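U., I forgot to send this yesterday:
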Amino acid sequence: MLAQVVTGGGPASPSADLGIAHFVGQSDLVGKSLFIFLLLMSLASWYLILAKAFTHLRIRHRSRKFLQEFWAASSLEQVENEIATHGATEPFAHLASHAIHAQKHHAKYGALKLEESGSTAAFVTRTIRKVIDEETARLENGLTVLASVGSTAPFVGLFGTVWGVYHALLSIGMSDGVTINRIAGPVGEALVMTGLGLAVAIPAVLGYNAFVRINRVYLARLDAFAHDLLTFLSTGQPFEDGEHEPSGTPISLAARRGA
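Result:
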């Protein structure tokens, strides 16, 4: 379409049908560099979106399975055996493994180092906070790139448009006659860069907002699990509230239903 405007409405050649390719081909080094930069930003954002979406689906499935097995276990030893057999492949198992190990280590050896000072509950609490911080950092990995792409891509495209319009007007000014056909074609093709910038930014922004919400919900569940786990390790009793049946057994985890 843009090529038809440039040629005065006549039939466009096969090579001229490629509007973006035609614009990039006639642009200078700056225009080509901006186009490549936008292309790399788009590839990076889509890779992160797809990779993190797959990771979240896998973690959610494994977490649901682990929580069912954890609260159905008859003892902490059974939980440890399950983790040792299948590995701590998701945040809930990772948290439970470190918390149980910290509780047993402090109860057996006491405070051997400065970082282990305090009561067993205090030491386990510090261990749980450390694991939650690690899992938070792991879940948020890559979000900075999505945020950067979403906030900078429109301006990169706008800069490419301004640069293209500037050179188009220079070439029009040096020509003999100025008509609407000579102006509309080059300027319209320069506006392609603005569209490219928006096409790169919109998926990155939507992906960033979606993953931030998913992480917030997931970390809230992890924090609730950590609270229940700390209560059980400290008192030997599952945490009791209006949603759970009280348990009279001091060790059994089977009375506590998984979330």
